[in-house]
Amino acid sequence: MPIIVNLDVMLARRKMSLSELAEQVDITLSNLSILKTGKAKAIRFSTLEKICEVLDCQPADILEYGK
Fold it and tell me: How far is residue 27 from each of residues 1, 23, 46, 54, measured CA to CA in Å?
């Protein structure tokens, strides 16, 4: 089963836009969109760390294994 990306859920909880997150994480909006839609093949730990830092969450809040 695929890995499910719940980035949109965390953004809604934090009342933050995708472009705000992209700016704070220093990643392009298009790359962040690819991650958000679940089309990314990989994510660097450093990027995941920055996302979690900005959203004040754990990696499991963003990524889950679909059963």
Answer: 27, 7, 11, 12
